[in-house]
């Protein structure tokens, strides 16, 4: 197709032979990159550090900007293993637009954002007008207080062909390539992130049944909350149940407890039923806690007993 593609292909093939075992995706990305005439320094070396270094990213972005948009789309930072090591700063070299994105002032049918109010907008924790999704999850005052979501918490890859966080093809041995929890198959619908492993963690239903509670939280809380103890969740979760929670890098463990003590159950309920976009709830790990009962409830039988390795904090201090 292009004059230099035979040469580029040769170089790339040699590299693939060396690294194919460790890099299941290389054999899919590289031929496409060479076909479109892409020769990126990172791809040739497949050296993760070289691919994700902010200086190197800036240099590649400048080179791509001249004439090779396709090369930028196929930049190796969008693929594993590099994406796992990429800093937010590296992604933002090319994607700073997500920091200035704004929702429309009105829907296409003409309904103004200022004339609608969602339940979660009435909470004490909600600040400001409706804002872009990325801003709400990374920059809003409440987001900054309780969580720490990096780009690759949600974006596990971006393959422009599959439009999937994981390429859905098989590896050289014909095995399905996956790095999800418990060997789950790679997500195949054309979404940019896997909602079951991201959104659902904070936007599932209130898991009342597993708590032996019947009814809705807004009814239950009336009997559990007083002016002195305005957070009904803590009547059970301060000392008695599942007290070793949130041992993950993407949440601010201590700040969540501080906010929960200072405020109402809206703080906890917000991530555990209050902004539920789904009918199920996330199957949370059941981290052993002091004085944990020894009999295992049925629903807990298949639960992991600690956070995913990807996010796990070093053993509690
Ligand atoms: C060298 C520049 C560059 C870097 C660095 C980069 N990207 Fe991209 N990315 C692009 C380009 C160009 C596209 C294609 C955009 C389009 O077609 O709208 C793209 C597409 C995407 C898309 C799909 C957007 C869409 O609308 O289809 C996502 C998601 C994405 N990148 C996430 C990331 C993440 C996360 C990182 C950091 C790990 C990252 N990118 C780093 C240049 C880059
Ligand atoms: C809480 C999860 C989450 C985090 C954290 C996150 N994203 Fe996204 N991102 C999404 C979702 C969901 C979409 C929309 C996907 C779709 O339309 O299918 C998206 C879309 C995008 C797009 C496509 C353009 C757009 O605005 O729709 C780009 C580029 C992107 N993200 C880059 C980033 C970068 C860079 C970071 C880190 C600074 C980041 N994202 C952090 C979930 C996230
Ligand atoms: C780690 C927890 C967490 C994850 C993961 C998460 N969210 Fe959220 N989400 C929140 C919190 C907290 C807020 C409220 C932020 C605020 O009030 O400023 C929120 C707010 C929202 C809102 C309301 C936005 C607005 O401007 O009014 C939407 C919609 C949303 N999330 C969708 C999603 C989707 C879709 C995903 C997955 C791609 C996702 N969230 C992943 C915690 C999370
Ligand atoms: C009456 C006591 C009680 C109250 C009040 C209560 N919980 Fe629970 N909660 C429990 C018990 C019991 C469990 C299950 C313990 C176990 O693992 O054996 C539990 C489990 C959970 C789980 C883990 C569920 C799972 O599937 O792994 C979450 C999340 C949770 N509670 C959040 C909350 C939030 C948020 C509130 C307030 C809105 C709240 N709880 C109020 C008793 C309570
Ligand atoms: C910003 C969102 C957010 C807030 C606020 C929040 N949680 Fe969670 N919670 C999560 C996520 C995400 C997990 C899963 C963490 C993991 O995988 O270990 C979780 C896990 C849990 C678990 C299961 C823990 C385990 O390992 O056994 C319990 C119980 C729980 N939360 C209760 C609460 C209570 C009580 C509060 C208020 C004090 C609260 N949560 C506030 C997002 C939140």
Relevant terms:
16 helices, globular, disordered N terminus, single chain, mainly alpha, 37% helix, 2 domains, 317 residues, binds heme C
Descriptive notes:
The protein starts with a helix and ends in a 43-residue tail after the last helix. The chain has 16 helices and no strands. The protein has 2 domains: 2-87 and 173-193, no CATH class; 97-149 and 199-317, no CATH class. The chain has helices spanning 5-19, 26-35, 41-45, 48-52, 54-67, 69-73, 82-85, 88-95, 133-138, 141-146, 151-154, 199-203, 217-224, 234-237, 253-262, 266-274. Helix 1 (5-19) packs antiparallel against helix 2 and helix 5 (54-67) runs parallel beside helix 8. The chain has 317 residues and is mostly helical. The protein binds heme C (HEC) (5 copies). One heme C is lined by residues 57, 60-61, 64, 69, 72-73, 75, 77-78, 83, 86, 90-91, 93-95, 151-152, 155, 158, 192.
Helix content: 25-40%
Largest sheet: none
Small molecules bound: heme C
Return the structural class.
mainly alpha
List the helices and strands and how they pair.
Elements: H1 5-19, H2 26-35, H3 41-45, H4 48-52, H5 54-67, H6 69-73, H7 82-85, H8 88-95, H9 133-138, H10 141-146, H11 151-154, H12 199-203, H13 217-224, H14 234-237, H15 253-262, H16 266-274
Helix pairs in contact: 1-2, 5-8
């Amino acid at each position: 197709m292009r004059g230099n593609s035979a040469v580029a292909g040769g170089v790339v093939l040699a590299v693939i032979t060396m690294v194919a075992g460790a890099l299941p995706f290389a054999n899919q990305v590289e031929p496409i990159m060479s076909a479109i005439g892409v020769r990126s320094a990172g791809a040739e070396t497949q050296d993760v550090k070289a691919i994700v270094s902010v200086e190197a990213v800036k240099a590649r972005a400048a080179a791509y900007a001249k004439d090779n948009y396709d090369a930028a789309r196929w930049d190796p930072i969008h693929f594993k293993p590099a994406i796992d090591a990429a800093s937010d700063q590296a992604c933002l070299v090319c994607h700073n637009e997500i920091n200035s994105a704004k929702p429309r002032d009105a829907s296409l049918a003409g309904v103004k954002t200022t004339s609608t109010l969602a339940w979660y907008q009435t909470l004490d924790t909600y600040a400001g007008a409706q804002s872009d999704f990325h801003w709400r999850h990374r920059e809003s005052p409440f987001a900054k207080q309780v969580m720490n979501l990096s780009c690759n918490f949600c974006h596990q890859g971006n393959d422009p062909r599959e439009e999937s966080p994981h390429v859905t093809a098989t590896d050289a041995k014909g095995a399905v390539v996956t790095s999800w929890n418990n060997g789950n198959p790679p997500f195949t619908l054309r979404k940019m992130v896997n909602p079951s492993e991201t959104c659902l963690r904070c936007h599932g239903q209130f898991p009342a049944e597993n708590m032996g509670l019947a009814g809705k939280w807004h009814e239950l809380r009336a009997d559990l909350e007083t002016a002195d103890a305005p957070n009904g969740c803590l009547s059970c979760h301060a000392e008695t149940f599942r007290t070793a929670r949130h041992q993950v890098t993407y949440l601010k463990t201590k700040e969540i407890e501080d906010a929960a003590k200072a405020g109402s159950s809206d703080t906890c309920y917000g991530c555990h039923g209050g902004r539920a976009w789904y009918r199920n709830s996330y199957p949370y790990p059941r981290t052993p806690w002091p004085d944990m009962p020894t009999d295992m409830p049925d629903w807990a039988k298949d639960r992991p007993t600690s956070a995913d390795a990807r996010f796990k904090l070093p053993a509690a201090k």
